[in-house]
Design goal:
By secondary structure, the chain is an alpha+beta fold. The chain is 49% helix and 16% strand. The radius of gyration is 15 Å and the shape is flat.
């Protein structure tokens, strides 16, 4: 029996890209098969009264610099 999991991603999301790179190893290790489904996070944020992380934490000192460094890692 194959377990199938959905991976919903936004082309503009760096975190989606990083997660996507790990999926083959997860599939190999667990036997779970992922299906890919593109979404627009902006379309999800509005009806859920949410905001993008960079907008939500715009007031946080050094947030952009930390995010850039974390992305490099």
């Amino acid at each position: 029996m194959t377990i199938i999991a959905g991976f919903h991603y936004d082309f503009g999301s760096p975190n989606s890209y990083f997660c996507h790179r790990e999926i083959p190893q997860i599939e190999e290790r667990t036997g779970i098969e992922f299906t890919y489904g593109p979404i627009l996070l902006g379309g999800v944020f509005k009806p859920t009264n949410n905001r993008p992380p960079m907008e939500q934490s715009a007031e946080v000192k050094n947030k952009k610099e930390y995010f850039a460094r974390e992305t490099e890692r």
